[in-house]
Design brief:
By secondary structure, the protein is of the alpha/beta class. The chain folds into two domains: 83-390, Glycoside hydrolase, family 3, N-terminal domain (TIM Barrel); 408-587, Rossmann fold (3-Layer(aba) Sandwich), CATH 3.40.50.1700. A hairpin with a 2-residue loop joins strand 9 (250-251) and strand 10 (254-255). The strands form five sheets. The chain has an eight-stranded parallel β-sheet with strand order 11-7-5-4-3-2-1-12. Strands 13-18-17-16-14-15 form a six-stranded mixed β-sheet, sandwiched between helices. The protein has helices spanning 3-9, 32-42, 55-70, 107-113, 116-132, 162-177, 222-233, 265-275, 294-298, 322-332, 344-351, 357-373, 384-390, 394-407, 434-439, 487-498, 514-517, 531-538, 556-561, and strands spanning 11-14, 46-48, 79-82, 137-138, 189-195, 214-216, 238-241, 245-247, 250-251, 254-255, 281-282, 337-338, 409-413, 426-430, 443-444, 453-459, 501-506, 522-526, 581-582, 586-587. It is 33% helix and 12% strand.
């Protein structure tokens, strides 16, 4: 391989769409001309896909990229990666709309079930769906511990218990990679993230944005490392470093260099490679080598809509020349750069003596080895008709729906109102589909005065504290409590004052439910559930089995007093971690 071809292989680009919608790469079909230029001229052969829609079309589009790659000088097949596709919440830059893929609860819901076999089965089904459409790599799981309750990315984690997370991360990797010995020709390469300490974000602000670039520690990293040990035990193929600068953290009693983990040799070489013997690919999170402009650092002016065009996450090295950012990352231990195709800077770094070519060879070997293990050199193509029959088939969705039911956490059940006898009940609905409720035997009424009972779906509270940043405008930050004056809470108060009310809260963060506990006759936590699966549990077709994967605090004062890097350490939680009731056995 030429130096240019090697540098191209170290780029993990974005498969651009022909008609982009929002974040780069979303849409229905690829811009094969633009991607073909990157494959042929730059040597890029790893791409994230964000396409949704018909699985047959997605399979055909991925085949088209493989055909382009097959015609290059070396014929290196393309590795197609994806953010998670099988859950409810769609977050640009973190997940993909599920489309026809089987729809499971968030990983928090899998943690609420707490069953490693269930997680392994989920991942095995997702693996089969991914491979059928030509996706070979999943940018998951999140092994981050949700130790800071305000953090906006908790929904993608397994919660805040390090031992449970370690067990479930191991099962997740085994399911996706098709076994515990590393990825094989039927497997999907798993990239565990984010190494390490991302869940301890200072004030809960996320490090996609400059104001959230710090995670806050008061010493060592052992608690946050523990979940990753499950991934290592399953021979995970990839690791993604966190964006964050670990403020106050130490390693072997020494302070860490105050740079993002993608530039930190202590975290990548000394800890990950040497102490834990990791031999796979270290793939950066997206945009760590981009120039951080004034818009990146300070946000967009008032009245101007924030754009992803200003995205950069080069924390701690913002003022280095770009070539030096690439060199620092490679010398720290990075093998592949996410979200960029600027291979020329790796070439410049080698030719100027900032990186040795032997170091580049190590990375290229690791990347190529995984392609061989997955059988991509033998046959990178997929059967488009099979993809249409396979993705989200009835058996897969039946298992996913059963997991949704299992994941529900029953917090309150006053007077044993649940399970509810639907027949003859007049119900007022808020956030629940009336046609679905009618199928269960309820009579849906339009006003509270005629109702026997109400069913309310709502979300965990949040604030938008940084609307002038692209991620700040869409991420859930700040207050976790229901507050007077909030329109949604005022409606819930109106309903609960008029009629006995069952409330279910989507817990993408550990909401403070103090204001709901006394108002609701029954209170249910969910982590992504369809109306049908919810009503199955409310009417006794199935029982709730979930236990909280994090504690639910009792007040914001206690949230502000806890330490960002420690799990379940608020002084007087409203509901402790592991809490959950059942119809037949009471509190567990």
């Amino acid at each position: 391989m030429t130096l240019e071809e090697k540098a191209g292989m170290m780029m993990h680009g974005t498969a651009r769409s022909a008609v982009p919608a929002g974040i780069v790469g979303t849409g229905a079909v690829y811009d094969t001309a633009a991607i073909g230029k990157l494959i042929r001229d730059v040597g890029v052969n790893s791409f994230i896909t964000r396409l949704g829609g018909d699985p047959r079309l997605l399979a055909a589009q991925n085949n088209a990229l493989q055909e382009i790659a097959e015609g290059t000088r070396l014929g290196v097949p393309v590795t197609i990666s994806s953010d998670p596709r099988n859950h409810f919440q769609y977050v640009p830059g973190a997940s993909v709309q599920s489309g026809r893929f089987s729809q499971w609860p968030e990983t928090l819901g899998l943690a609420a079930i707490g069953d490693a076999a269930q997680v392994r089965r989920f991942a095995d089904i997702a693996r089969q769906e991914y491979r059928s459409v030509g996706i070979h790599e999943t940018l998951s799981p999140q092994a981050d511990l949700a130790t800071e309750p305000r953090w906006s990315r908790i929904n993608g984690t397994f919660g805040e218990d390090p031992d449970l997370t370690r067990k479930l991360v191991k099962a997740y990797v085994e399911g996706f990679q098709h076994g515990a010995s590393g990825v094989d020709s039927a497997g999907v390469l798993a990239v565990v993230k984010h190494w390490v300490g991302y869940g301890a974000q200072k004030n809960g602000f996320d490090s996609h944005s400059s104001y959230g670039r710090f995670a806050s520690f008061s010493g060592g990293l052992d608690t946050h490392i523990k979940p990753f040990l499950g991934a290592f035990a399953a021979h995970v193929g990839g690791v993604m470093p966190t964006y964050s600068i670990l403020e106050g953290a130490t390693l072997s009693g020494r302070p860490l260099e105050q740079v993002g983990a993608g530039f930190n040799r202590q975290l990548l070489t000394d800890l990950l490679r040497k102490r834990y013997g990791f031999q796979g690919i270290i793939l950066t999170d997206w945009a760590i080598t981009n120039d951080c402009s004034d818009l990146c650092r300070n946000g967009f002016p008032a009245g101007q809509r924030p754009s992803f065009a200003a995205l950069a996450t080069s924390w701690g090295v913002e003022d280095l020349p770009k070539v030096d950012r690439f060199a620092k990352a490679v010398n720290a231990g990075v093998d592949q750069f996410g979200g960029t195709e600027e291979a020329q800077f790796v070439v410049q770094a080698v030719r100027s003596g900032k990186i040795t070519e032997s170091r580049i060879n190590e990375s290229v070997y690791r990347i190529a080895l995984q392609k061989f293990r997955q059988g991509l050199f033998e046959n990178p193509y997929v059967d488009t008709a099979e993809a249409g029959r396979f993705v989200g088939n009835p058996q897969f969705q039946s298992e996913a729906t059963a997991a949704q039911r299992r994941s529900l956490v029953l917090l309150e059940n006053k007077n044993g109102i649940l399970p509810l006898a639907a027949r003859g009940k007049r119900v007022f609905l808020h956030g629940v589909d009336s046609a679905t409720a009618t199928r269960y035997g309820f009579t849906v009424v339009p006003d509270l005065s005629r109702a026997d009972i109400a069913i309310v779906r709502t979300n965990a509270p949040f604030q938008t504290l940084h609307p002038n940043y692209a991620f700040g405008a869409m991420q859930h930050e700040g207050d976790l409590g229901f507050r007077n004056g909030n329109a949604e809470f005022e409606e819930i108060k109106r309903i609960t004052a008029a009629v006995p009310t069952i409330v279910t809260v989507y817990l993408d963060r550990p909401a403070i439910l103090t204001e709901l506990k006394d108002r609701a006759i029954a209170l249910v936590g969910n982590f992504g559930v369809s109306d049908a699966a919810l009503l199955d549990v409310l009417t006794g077709v199935a029982r709730p089995e979930g236990r909280l994967p994090f504690e639910l605090p009792s007040s914001m004062e206690e949230v502000e007093a806890q330490r960002s890097d420690l799990p379940h350490d608020t002084a007087h939680p409203l509901y402790r971690i592991g809490y959950g009731r059942s119809y037949s056995r009471g509190t567990r």
